[in-house]
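Hi support team,

I submitted a single chain yesterday and got back a structure, but I'm not sure I'm reading the token output correctly. Could someone confirm the output below corresponds to the sequence I sent? I've pasted both exactly as they appear in my results page.

Thanks,
R.
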Amino acid sequence: MILARALGAVLGFGAVPVYAQEVSVDSTQSTPAQDVATRPVLRSNRWQEDWSVLANPALRTQWGDALKYIALSATDPGTYLSLGVNLRERTEMLDAANFGIGHNPNDTYLLQRFQIHGDLRFATYWQAFVQIEDARTVGKQVIGGADRNPWDLRLAFLAYVRTFDSGTFKARAGRQDFAFDLQRFVSLRDGPNVRQSFDAIWVDWETGKWRFIAFVSQPVQYSNLHPFDDTSNRHFRFDTLRVERLVWGKNELSAYYSRYIRDNARYLDATGDEHRDVYDVRFAGNHAGVDWDLEGMLQRGHVGTKDIDAWGSGARAGYTWDKPWFPRLGLQIDAASGDNHPGDNKLGTFNPLFPNGYYFTLAGFTGYTNLIHIKPSLTIKPVAKLTLMGAVGFQWRQTTADAIYVQPNIPLPATAGRGGSWTGVYGQVRADYTFNANFTGAVEAVHYDVGRAIRMAGGRDGDYIGVEGKFMW
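Hi R., thanks for writing in. Yes, this is the structure output for that exact sequence:
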């Protein structure tokens, strides 16, 4: 948080920026009413921002704009370099990691994620983007695989985008990230400290109401021993074909097939090379205050000599009243298969692929494997910059023959085949506040009351509090 304030002071963000304000463009001698441009909105994917509008000096209203748009051509304003910074500081207090199983101590610690990037646009259709990430922990006693990654290459790709009369073609090659839909299964993994990247080749064709996507990738495997030691290789692959279509207005229907290949995979009831065929369908939209997002996934293939027969599904729906505070009453239902018959020739344990880590709560007590989850919620906006949410989540195992799983899909010891299906119930409250276009904050608290199966394994109730600040420039 201190570093965020220091950066803000250096770059001149003491006052509220005017990113959303429209500013006149008169470089072509048109009147303000005829030609209006807008500063870009800061995005989670920084490479999606287009800062070419700062070619017009009238839009350079903030300190640091000289680095947001560095002209590289005297004749082409679309040829430029843009620099940027992300900083996230989160303090977490967790008294029962893995529900206390394995003698995990009470823990209070700081997670810090710092990113710097350079975005080069040139030759009309081309983009080269590089982002360096430094993810660290301070005071954390149990270090997970997504907690720490000091000074490494997170993104480095070359992109080509060109619009034709019939549609738009897009391609990217290099280290990149991508996310589908609500990020249930393919995500940026923004919740944990280290985001997920892929060494990939991506192509995209958009025409009318249709969009077609194909990519081949090797997920990046992270190491926190030395700077710039992250790798990917042919032993872990994730390839996808996806199609999307807008229906009944702006509602979206999509489907994709993915091939997930991982050598030397280990599950409770299977070990060996994993070849998982993934079939996913989703329908999402909104109408007259009602919003919905429905998704189902089947998984087939094999792990070693055992055939895969797994499935997962998720649904979110809600109604928002056009009243003061815009109250939204929501309901979330999720389910994913476990392995019903250990010892047979089939593996029913669902693989959540690349989950975002905070789909249920920021605390991440449980994963998206072998579960049934029902979560009613209420969200309100007392003022435009503040969002408050409260929810209660109820969880069961889909089958007691398989384990209870924690993030991302790690089985809790001594839970498979023991205790009942009831996993537990949690309460969640969260507040999000937008201070300005560059700085946001959030507070979340979760209490998890565990069921008999976790207590039999030596676990206990858990409490979590997280306080987070995000700075973007």
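A quick pointer for reading it: The first helix runs from residue 2 to 11. Let us know if anything else looks off.

Best,
Support desk
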